[in-house]
Amino acid sequence: MKTTLLTNLLFSMALPIFAIPIIRRQDLQPFTGALGGATATSVLNSGDATRPFSVKGDTFVNIGAALQRSCDQQFNACADLANNPSSGVTFSVSDCQTQLDQCTSTDQGVTASSAAAASTASTTAAAAPAASACTPA
Q1: What's the CA gap between 128 and 47, in Å, rounded?
Q2: What is the pTM of this model?
């Protein structure tokens, strides 16, 4: 019984030491259109202060360039679907161009400061679970 109490006490005191930060990778791309299921590539915080924005592993100095790459990649995926007769889609590349224009215009409202704020807010520390108190019977 004493061993159980002592073990629980030591375990509950040690847990906060081992709490590790959790980084939620929030997508900074606001456009949600997806012709044929082709979504805009995620724009994430790279963790690099000099090139803070990442799109499929490529990093960018500013949010505008990252968002544009994301929209361009979506356009390419959409156009690939439209040009593939076996894909079964009923839209054309011109529809993909319209979607690209919509994606680009949606991204105009995203500024570096709003992206940085969203990126910073996405980092949180994990709370250690509380150990249950054990009382002798």
Answers
A1: 24
A2: 0.67
